[in-house]
Amino acid sequence: xxxxxxxxxxxxxxxxxxxxxxxxxxxxxxxxxxxxxxxxxxxxxxxxxxxxxxxxxxxxxxxxxxxxxxxxxxxxxxxxxxxxxxxxxxxxxxxxxxxx
Length: 100
Hints:
Blueprint: H1 5-14, H2 18-27, H3 31-44, H4 47-63, H5 67-88
Helix pairs in contact: 1-2, 2-4, 3-5, 4-5
């Protein structure tokens, strides 16, 4: 999926963090490549990085206004939560969140 100026602005906000850069990278990959990268990141990342990724996914998806990209981000986020559950053996909940 090609990114538009609007998408780049939203992703650019997130690029200021490690987790934000990861989400930005994954959006540019094919669906299967993104899912593979998410799985690898969750199984090998530290819990602080995973917590940061959790909050970042939610933030970027909430701000996204382009329907196709919002769906893609939410699919990635749902997969992330499933893999997180598999790694930790428990549903860790959702991060606190407020729209800006």
